# Entry
Amino acid sequence: MLSGIYGFLSASFFVLMDAVDVAFTEAAVGSGISPLLMLLTVALVGRNEKHESGKSIPALVLVTITGALLIIGTLSMPEFGSATAPAQTHVGPHYIEKSGSEIGIPNIVTSVLASYRGFDTFGEVAVVFTAGIGVLSLLMLKSSTVQKPVVTSAHKHKVLRIVSKILIPPILLFALYVQFHGDYGPGGGFQAGVIFAAAIILYTMFFGVDIAQQVVSFAVLRVLAAFGVLLYGSVGLVSMLNGGDFLDYSALAENPITGQHIGIIVIELGVGITVAAIMVMIFYCFAGQVNDTGEAGQ
Amino acid sequence: MTQLFTHYNYWIVVVLMMAGFFIVIAQGNLVKKLIGLNIFQTSVFILYISSGKITGGTAPILQEGITVYSNPLPHVLILTAIVVGIATTALGLALVIRIKKAYGTIEESEIQQRDHTC
# Structure
């Protein structure tokens, strides 16, 4: 709960810092998915903890000394909000001045993310994918051969059922808007992916994993997660076949700007698909574990 | 004294970072350690984002009539870092669940004890 509030607070902080794209992501991840996973884990491993004394005083001393040293170190850092700080003078101005004419989309964050730093983003998507595979291999879902329609408590709760019906479609629509409007406003594949996943996770929480799996099955998620990464990579390959470099979108069409547009939309789609699929998959894995231990407990 | 008003962003970062660090080294509970790592991670996010901020600047979306934009580069780095962060946190939590299954506990001291007795 506190962690959710913390996530929301840091999201509003990022809006103040002009980082609207980052704020979107943090709002969905920090106050939605992350505390949820923490709670599920606590539900699985039990909330009792042993109190150990004697460790905290040396730790406190160490932390205080490190903190003091770091604060002394910050005194030589540039002032907050200064326009002449080293961070603002190297590659940042280039992006701000040139991206409008080179890439042709208003949202600089998207053009840096998808085009200038396309390799980097490809790597990040691959890391998300690998982490998803890691979770999958650690917490393998038992494939239930018998599809028994489990009527969970949410079916009896009228309020929950109706609220979910009102809330979930707009969230999905909003995720799609964020996905395809990422060129012009704040948004993009990463944000849309987590928002989309949040909607499906909400549905899973209301109706249980079994029913949610009838809507979005596990096999589909696995295919989608891999498909997103491959889509991203294949854009790079197509641009190579057209005579450009890997992930050089200007080679995708006659007009370099059009090529950039196509490339960015397609790779953002790939990012969105992978992120959404992996997030839902991770949640299924965790929730499936809870169900298993719950049934064993009964 | 002027330092206090021009560098407060770094101080917030340091406080958060040390809070996270303290949780990681002082708590024996593995879930709490992960929460500490999360707080540590957020402090790094704040460090990056606040270093990209320019006074009087606005969000880096090109518009008519605006000349000062905040630096978009830290935004890009942190945007992806958040999503990667949640994925790796999930991996860590999955490991915790497996440790609980294998050892029956998630307290660091008890796990080490069991390793030594084996």
In short: Confidence is low (pLDDT under 50) at residues 143-151 of chain A. The CA atoms of residues 69 and 142 of chain A lie 50 Å apart. Chain A touches chain B through 90 residues (CB under 8 Å). Residues 256-297 of chain A form the longest helix (42 residues).
